[in-house]
């Protein structure tokens, strides 16, 4: 992309699941797409005329069925989509853009999810807005497919915006959790994170930070089981959660907050922030991945993205060279992989302009047939790759390039031989 990727999601418009990207970019690959695009094979495609070319950017995307079939809902600071007025949120049904009621009065940030408060599934969005559909909602609102409604008195404070939404059951039934840089929800002090049970706001163990403006920003929420049971994980810009030191990321089990090792940090003078969370299994079991603007996790250099396996932090090779704003798991047909979007131009040592893919290579099955065995079919694949540089043969040959010289030759044979004769 020619500019930042702010959001990634997977959506099926009827042609099969596909990866969608949104942000501030005008082009994806060599295609003009205007802030939002769909990946089909190795080609990026526009969604109609996209978002108005000089009109804001996409911050968040999510799927919701408003009664007319699943559709992609897109939020941001734009006011035009597909050439028509939409006011910060729009609906894409696979072929046409349409407004979502009267929209919102200001930006829809990185907060969008589906929740059933007992009256049926609805789309919940958060952001900088005061009104939605012309009614006062104060930064968080519900869209039931026909009209907008408020969640009590919403959230407020000197700094007030909802940046993350997630559904979590703490043992008392599913509830909607909202994170951001607000201090108050429903008239009570909550410090950056609050719970909505369908009728009432409540605090979440004292919230995050220390109550000072700017120190209680929650940007990402997700539910995950790291081996200790399901819990809600929050990431953002904060130093503590519930009074427990927890730099940038913390775990809420329904009763108390806890830290994830030493958390995420950066060089002195910079502000570490976790932005997005996703659960991904790289073959060693499901783990929590966090992306943002930090450079260290657990005291180790990770560079903007890191993995938490339940006990310790680890890097994804050398990480990235700039910020991460979006993460999603998607299977292109060769197994689930982690897709990352942001402001970076390098992923590891590979030029990867604002979007990259992280996937495990199974060294026990070179031909990629998924049988987990190294056999004569794998030997044949290796022999076929001996004919030239890996980029002229195909991406599968890269797994044989043991010494990294972009050629598959006899220098790489030892690694293959060891794998072929071993378990």
Strand fraction equals 35-45%
Largest sheet: 4 strands, antiparallel
- Overall morphology: globular
Supply the helix-strand structural class: mainly beta
- Just name the CATH architecture of the largest domain: 7 Propeller
CATH topology type of the largest domain: Methylamine Dehydrogenase, Chain H
Q: How much helix is in the residues?
A: under 10%
Mean pLDDT: 90
Helices, by number, come to 3
Under CATH at level 1, the class of the largest domain stands as: Mainly Beta
Verbal overview:
- A hairpin with a 2-residue loop joins strand 28 (240-241) and strand 29.
- The model has no long low-confidence stretch (mean pLDDT 90).
- The chain folds into two domains: 5-358, YVTN repeat-like/Quinoprotein amine dehydrogenase (Methylamine Dehydrogenase, Chain H, 7 Propeller); 376-421, no CATH class.
- The strands form 14 sheets. Strands 1-2-5-6 form a four-stranded antiparallel beta sheet, with no helix packed on it. Strands 7-8-11-12 form a four-stranded antiparallel beta sheet, with no helix packed on it.
- It has three helices and 43 strands.
- It is 5% helix and 45% strand.
- The longest helix is centred in the C-terminal third of the chain and has 9 residues, at 376-384.
- It has 423 residues and is mostly beta strands.
